């Protein structure tokens, strides 16, 4: 049930009004508004930066039937969009998002460098600061054939661990919602009990497999539960 806040003076705006509006848009209780941290809203990439690895994946905001989101197209390319943001996992440990893919890739071994491509993935990064070799990342991926819940080290570095959140083409072409406990996931794959993350990224890439694919990313936010 949505809880309403009534100001004592009707002419006075509640200090938490913006948080209330965000909470209503995300479909959570107004009473939990202060425990929701938006990361990507309505397809706006304001505050996000591009990181190219090999060629440019095209990312743009699109609006269809009143819904806005990020549309990504990869043509044998690998680049991502990232946002530097500190998230206190003591307060908001759950990462929530919606995504949709056109199709899964074909015949790529995701555990090898030659097949390290995904139609959609979300990175969550913990910075090592000056000790860059201590930087760690969890990759939530839409896998071709790894069973949901499977984890494995990235083919290029063990400092990035992959988690198959969605697998195969069963849900291709439709929006699906995901929710992960980031703090629990980092502890499971790295053995460390982190309390904050420092950046988040989205990436659609096909540079290794030489294929083409498109994906959509809806709202992304952290929540208390």
In words, what does this structure look like?
It is built from 2 helices and 13 strands. The protein has helices at 17-26, 182-190; strands at 36-40, 49-54, 58-64, 67-75, 78-88, 94-101, 118-126, 136-143, 151-153, 160-167, 176-181, 196-205, 212-223. A hairpin with a 6-residue loop joins strand 9 and strand 10 (160-167). The strands form 2 sheets. The chain has a 7-stranded mixed sheet. Strands 1, 3, 4, 6, 11 and 13 form a 6-stranded antiparallel sheet that branches. It has one domain: Galactose-binding domain-like (Jelly Rolls, Sandwich). 8% of the residues lie in helices and 45% in strands. With 225 residues, it is mostly beta strands.
Quick structural gist:
It is built from 2 helices and 13 strands, in the order αβββββββββββαββ.
List keywords for this structure.
225 residues; mainly beta; Jelly Rolls; 7-stranded mixed beta sheet; 6-stranded antiparallel beta sheet; 2 helices
Per CATH, the architecture is Sandwich
Number of strands: 13
Measured as a percent range, the helix fraction is under 10%
**Residues in β-strands, percent:** over 45%
- Helical segment count: 2
Overall average pLDDT: 87
Structural class: mainly beta
Distance between the termini: 15 Å
Tell me the number of structural domains. Answer: 1
- Give the radius of gyration: 18 Å
User: What is the fold named in CATH at topology level?
Assistant: Jelly Rolls
Spatial strand sequence of the major β-sheet: 2-5-12-7-8-10-9
Any idea what the shape is? globular
CATH superfamily descriptor: Galactose-binding domain-like
**Major β-sheet annotation:** 7 strands, mixed
The low-confidence runs, each spanning 5 or more residues with pLDDT under 50, are 1-33
Q: What's the CATH C level?
A: Mainly Beta
Element order: H for helix, E for strand: HEEEEEEEEEEEHEE
